[in-house]
Amino acid sequence: MRHRAEAGHPEWRVPSKEDRDELVRRARAVLDANWRGESTVPSTSLYPHQWSWDAAFIAIGRSRVEQERAQLELESMFKAQWSTGMLPHIRFDPKVPDDAYFPGAGFWRSDRCPAAPKGVPTSGITQPPLHARAALAVWRNAGDRREALAFLERLYPKLAAQHRHLASHRDPDGDGLVAIVHPWESGQDNSPLWDSELEHLHIPPGALPPYQRYDTRHADAADRPSDASYDRYVYLAITFRERDYADDALMAQRLFLIEPPLFNAIYLWSEVALREIARLVGAEERPHAEAVRRIHEGMVNRLWDPERRRFGAYDVRTGRRILKSSVDAFIPLLDPHLPEHMVRAIANQLRSPHFDSPAGVEHYLIPSYDLRGRDFDRRRYWRGPVWINTDWLVWRGLLPHGEAELAGEIEDSMIRLVERSGFREYFDPFGAQGYGTDGFSWTAALLIDVLATQAGGLQA
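-> structure tokens emitted (460 positions)
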């Protein structure tokens, strides 16, 4: 990465107030088109239900412009919370036909599970726990502080239960880190990070029911996971369904059991937020402070590779660290107590040819996978394209650590990508072409937050 004037785009300028206002207007139009009364779908075509970490990103952006809908977004998602505290990764809209998305509610069959909420169809796995951070953003950006405090009082017990579930049921080695059991839980399911960890799966003949993928009906198959990968995703979900998605059973299977930097860094960042929320609502802060310490120590001791000077996901099943390099490795910047030498190492990796192209080459930050990696694909889902949400997470992480110049270049890329290609799901890191679905909610919501920050300072 270079100074903005040298980064290959000298013709681009920071948006004026008028430009920002127009981008916010367009972003709000996307969110309004995707609004369904109490929640927001990620897009009108490809994703017709409510997704968990999407809801958190959407609430953060909404909190800048519309407090009521930001609150509704999170409270709607928590109607799907299981009695164990687990927040599922999808809350299905019963008004949407079951064949409008695969795997739909009829595949997951959560209604058969004792811990699932009655009358609310959901999936049986979770996603990165960004929700406490989103709830705190609602409070910080609120016009009506009294209502925002009442909102925090309503949501805090559910947020605390979500975090207790992760600490109690998803920490297989007691190291403070959460293990995911399915690539869909990672938030970046088609990443090359998981390829080797999925190859060992043997799918018995007849184990997979006939199914029709929905995503390739609404997006180019070249942008999406391969059929072989999807078979493994479906097979894992079926084995979980047979066990009613009970955490102990899923952990004991060890079919896929990985502690990723992205998931755990978000977990820590939200635990920091939960500590502040506890103070605001008069609850005990100490358990959250202790959780922050445990997660921090787990990330530093288990996920940091001192030889390669970078973070990497840890495969609990094999007892080894995954050596491939993706944007996942940068998300620990969200830890406010990350040691300075680790911050510097991450900044150097972001500046390296693995994630930043040479001067004079049109490029956009941050590719989701190593530009020099054998598995890099500039357009396929999580195998190289730029995503606004991971850009936003790295940007948020860099700023408190004093990396304003790097953060500024990522900020510029986020804005330029939308200016070039609209509110797409993900983008080509070289030509800025948009891939996946259009009118994507978290792209719109997070751009609102970026533009609001430019106008008035960091709040979320």
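Residues 1-10 have pLDDT under 50 and may be disordered.
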